[in-house]
Amino acid sequence: MRTKPKTRILVVEDDTTVRLTISKLLGDEGYDVSTANDGFDALLHLQQAIPELIFSDLNMPQMSGFELLSVVRRRFPEVLVVASSGAYDSIAVPTGVIADAFYAKSQESAAELLEIIAHLIRTGPTGRKGESASVWIPRNGKDHKGKPFVVLTCTQCLRSFPFTVEHEASGEVLKTPCIYCPHEVTYIIDFSRSVNSPEKRAAWKAAFLKSQKESSEATLSRVTAEMAEPRMTKSARLQNILNRT
Questions:
Q1: pLDDT below 50 — which residues of the chain?
Q2: What does the pLDDT read at residue 153?
Q3: Buried b (16+ CB within 10 A) or exposed e, 126-150
Q4: What pLDDT does 18 receive?
Q5: Strand 53-57 relative to strand 8-12: parallel, antiparallel, unpaired?
Q6: Contact in structure between 73 and 128 (CB atoms under 8 Å)
Q7: Using alpha carbons only, what angle is made at residue 192 by residues 190 and 194, rounded to the nearest 5 degrees?
Q8: In sequence order, which residues have a C-beta less than 8 Å from that of residue 81 and are 6 or more positions away?
Q9: What is the DSSP code (8-state) at residue 107?
Q10: Distances (CA, A) of 204 to 29, 51, 54, 149
């Protein structure tokens, strides 16, 4: 009998602790896992082999997950995509994120992550081919009046322009008109400092590993209980099923 090939998953995560935790979880579940430490590294992996599924963090330096997933959707529309972030609590895919499914790190549930991935593999991609990614921009300091500002590059005319921002970065998808052309630019201000501190990463890892252990113990307990039950003959099992119905 031929062995069914393992589903290949590429985990893209800039935090080493989180990357190793997720890859071990998926590897223990039987998936063929490879890893990348940022968006550019992920693109290099894609030149060597195309996975069936990509699990990617959103708030990464150099190339954000927003931008990476936009490239993946355009060039590899058949690849399944699960986005992840600690900045969103909802299980729905956030606006501006080109993904088939979403895992909120605030859920701190290993079982939930495995179910999201298994469900997506069963159902397939959601068909987000025509969407464009939001521009991920860092704060650039303060202007001569002491107000914080950012520099945004228009995705249409490719010209850059600064503007002030009064609100705190929160991962919200925002829009502003380009000052040079009629195009409206969708952008997100880097919020990694608010969700990616060492303390929060450590707390997430501890809660995630705890949920993984509890899930494994529950499964082992159920299997042990089933094995301890008296074996029934085939006719007895059939009669038991008929009685239940």
A1: 1-2, 194-195, 223, 232, 234
A2: 80
A3: eebeeeebbbbbeeeeeeeeeebeb
A4: 87
A5: parallel
A6: yes
A7: 110
A8: 53, 54, 56, 69, 72, 73, 98, 99, 100, 101, 125
A9: G
A10: 20, 27, 21, 31
Q: Rounded to 5 degrees, what angle do the CA atoms 88, 112, 25 make?
A: 105
Given a contact cutoff of 8 angstroms between Cβ atoms, the answer to whether 151 and 161 are in contact is yes
168: which 2 tokens?
């705190």
Q: Cα separation of 8 and 45, whole Å?
A: 12
Instruction: Say how many Å lie between the first and final Cα of the chain, rounded.
Output: 35
pLDDT of residue 143: 74
pLDDT number for residue 10 = 97
Under 8 Å between Cβ of 201 and 15 = yes
Question: Are the C-beta atoms of 55 and 23 separated by less than 8 Å?
Answer: no
Sign of CA dihedral 152, 154, 160, 164: negative
- Name the token pair of 187: 């952008």
Q: What digits encode the pLDDT tens for the residues 175-215?
A: 889 999 998 888 877 665 544 555 665 666 666 667 666 65
Name residues whose C-beta falls within 8 Å of residue 166's C-beta, 6 or more positions apart in sequence: 147, 148
171/131 Cα distance (integer angstroms) = 18
DSSP string computed for 168-215:
PP-S--EEEE-SSSSPEEEEEE--HHHH--HHHHHHHHHHHHHHHHHH
| Whole-angstrom distance, CA of residue 92 vs CA of residue 145 | 40
Report the SS3 class of residue 189.
strand
Helix (H, G, I), strand (E, B) or coil at 243: helix
